[in-house]
Amino acid sequence: MADMRIGVFGGTFNPPHIAHLILADETQHQLSLDLLLWVLTADPPHKQNTPITPLEHRLEMVRLALVGEPRNELSRIEIDRPGPHFAVDTLHLLAEEYPQAVLVYLMGGDSLQDLIRWHLPGEFVKACDELGVMRRPEDQIDLPGIEAALPGISKKIRFVDAPLLEISSSEIRRRVAEGRPFRHYLPTAVYNYIQANNLYG
To answer: How many domains does the chain have?
Structure first.
């Protein structure tokens, strides 16, 4: 489909929770996305020393979270090739897979501020058509500084007004481990899966 707008939503999704789904909805609406690819990261380069839940569990939880979400799709692009996985390579591969599409890479304001330290940041900026940046009130984004370091990035940035949701995967994992309530932070199917498989305890 010509000029189909595809969002690229990367993460370890450990576990996927309701804030992820709300952000997915908001970005689809505000950036007019036809499809949102949830790119599950098998072994993120910046989390090499953090123990991470086995991939098959995270895959199944994302699959369960996306049941009944028609314009959302689980992408295996970082799973079916050896790591380490860098965003720039993922975008090149997606551009081959969807040659006519406008690729909109989603990230948080903190990642935008940190982008200069990514692998081949200049190449990454060239590879994406737009950057959907989800702001938080406490973000300190120095746009002139980022533009000076990565010329041309400013015209690709589209800010997304995301509701402030203090829900994170690490907080949910901590709650499970401590025996605190966590049921309503997750889609029901994901909650049931965590319970059935004794994850995060």
So the answer is: 1
